[in-house]
Amino acid sequence: MKKNERMRPAVEEGELDFSGKYSLERAREYYRKHQKGSLGRRISNRWEQQMAGRALKLAGNPRSVLDLPCGTGRFWELLARDPDRELLAADYSEAMLVVAQEERPQEIVQRFRVFQSSAFDIQLPDNAVENIFCMRLLHHIGESEDRLRILKEFHRVARDSVCISMWVDGNYKAWKRQRAVKRRPKRKRFDNRFLHSRQQVESEFAEAGFSIRGKVDFLPRYAMWRTYVLECD
């Protein structure tokens, strides 16, 4: 596959409801939200970048990385800090890929091999990369069956490790969210974002063939965000 090649992902079933929702304008709004949004959002983005950097160190500073889903390339500059790292980036949304390549510095964009792909069916062979870097996907996956499909696909493609973020319980913000969910009328739901039991997802990691190398919390005991560094057994 050539650099910056786009191809239609092969997805049989279970693709996420929101996966194809992004028009070019919505993708540009997503980019602006994280890059030029409120002060609080910009600070949060900076902390999340630091958290991701710590996860990459725990993963052993991998020599090849697939950023999936890459969105508008929010972590590309972080991933490209290692000048010798082989970089790949994929997203199910073609609009996200277009905006990422329009808005990010071209010297960074040129480092990446960009292609369209679903996390359920990655358009790469077995053991294609040392590490899969997966930020802000698993908190959209409410069903264990779907999470396992993604995790097993990650295990197929990554030969050493996976960095994967999600919302987990056991902290103040999770307690507040759980209480809010109970108070909401049954006819109303939170949108496509889910809080996961640490015990449940960690058992799913093991079922998919991973062991836990390390964990990085956004704000320990307060925030829901956690990035797990998983090792391919």
List the helices and strands and how they pair.
Layout lengths: L23 H12 L3 H20 L5 E4 L8 H4 L6 E6 L2 H10 L2 H4 L2 E5 L12 E6 L9 H14 E10 L4 H12 L14 H11 L1 E8 L7 E8 L1
Helix pairs in contact: 1-4, 6-8
Provide structural commentary.
The protein is about 35% helix and about 20% strand. The chain has about 230 residues and is an alpha/beta fold. Strands 3-2-1-4-5-7-6 form a 7-stranded mixed beta sheet, sandwiched between helices. The longest helix is centred in the first third of the chain and has 20 residues, at about 40-60. The relative contact order is 0.16.
Order of helices and strands: HHEHEHHEEHEHHEE
CATH architecture: 3-Layer(aba) Sandwich
* CATH homolog superfamily: Vaccinia Virus protein VP39
How many helices in DSSP terms? 8
Look at the structure and give the mean pLDDT.
88
Strand content: 15-25%
The termini sit apart by 28 Å
Helix content: 25-40%
- Give the neighbour order of strands across the main sheet: 3-2-1-4-5-7-6
* Rg from alpha-carbon coordinates: 17 Å
> Low-confidence segments, ≥5 residues, pLDDT <50?
1-14
CATH topology: Rossmann fold
How many distinct beta strands? Answer: 7
Biggest pleated sheet: 7 strands, mixed
Q: How many separate domains make up the residues? A: 1
Shape: globular
SSE class:
alpha/beta
**So what's the CATH class?**
Alpha Beta
